[in-house]
Amino acid sequence: MPAANREDPRAGKALRTTGKKRKKRGNRTGFTTGACAAAAARAAMLGLVRGAVPARVRARLPNGREVTFAIREARAGGDTAHAVVIKDAGDDPDVTHGARLTADLCLLPDRPGEIVLRGGPGVGTVTQAGLGLEVGGPAINPVPRRNIQENVAEAAGELLARSGVEVVISVPGGEKMARRTLNPRLGIVGGISILGTTGIVHPWSTAAFRASVIQGIEVAARQGLDTVVLTTGGRTEKFVMRELPHLAPACFVQMGDFLKPALDAVVANGISHVVIGGMVGKLVKMAQGETITHAGRNPVNTDLVADIAAEAGASEALCDTIRKANTARFALEQLAGIGLDARFLAILGRRVIDTLSARYPGRFRLRVLICDFEGNKMAEVSDA
Fold this sequence. Notes:
Blueprint lengths: L29 E2 L1 H18 L5 E5 L5 E5 L1 E6 L2 E7 L13 E9 L6 E5 L2 E2 L1 E2 L15 H15 L2 H4 L1 E7 L3 H5 L9 E2 L1 E2 L7 E2 L5 H16 L4 E5 L2 H10 L8 E3 L4 H10 L4 E6 L1 H8 L14 H11 L3 H9 L3 H9 L4 H19 L5 E7 L5 E6 L2
Helix pairs in contact: 1-2, 5-7, 8-12, 9-10, 9-12, 11-12
């Protein structure tokens, strides 16, 4: 996946700032670009079925929850329909807050059963490998891609058996929004990414979320538990829960990007064992010494990634290629092709442990569990 969501390295996401003093923000959740795109596509599909696009639509999120969205610019006529959902990011300071997620649908009578998804203006185009998406295709992540298609299929009903449908997702102004994200650095040009693994945006950047991380660790300590398992998002949490079924539920804390506040709380509460569950991008951030691992902060240090690749046995030429790339995932994909991925991840896990142990000498034992982008275990390293 492209650098994306809080559960993965995130592209299309950046701090939203204005010249005015911001009001204190809370912990109100919002909706991802993917969820809004799926809702707009569902509404437009209903317009093709019924002859009129509804003013409100109940759409299914990737996490299975159903949510009602208001529809703007609703119109349908003949074989086409158009609908817009305005993104509400809740209390997350997201550059895409207020973006107009737009769906334009067109029936394809000669392609029954097909749902063809394309990116329109304002949706980025992938130009480099290492993002888990087709080079030359739209920057629509796999989870929102499936969610859009599922919502369209549900709304289409029997019509889909008689005709296919083309779905074009666009975001007016998306190219300008993308300049305030890491997309250009990641090789995504011309717009933002369509993101989201659950459909819900949590206010990861707020003091309220940081406080909830600390509170979770305090709860574990108060229950007499000596271990906390820190994860960067929902997918990594599910992964470590499968790997560590013997641990009590209170051991598992989603720290998001707040590595330092989480580990400071571990020390303050006398927790003696820490497990970190993560994917390659976030772990490189930890190994390079970042205390906040948000994608909008410092980029991945590809010199470090190349050094680890060299230690794993990669050729000088491959290391130079990795050094010039933009993502840790690119390096992992290249190394997997020559059978060096396991060695690379073992060294990366050790670098994470060494970096954090130097920062918190003798304060806790550390173990790192590494999963791929589907939540499958790839490596495990401990300080034993």
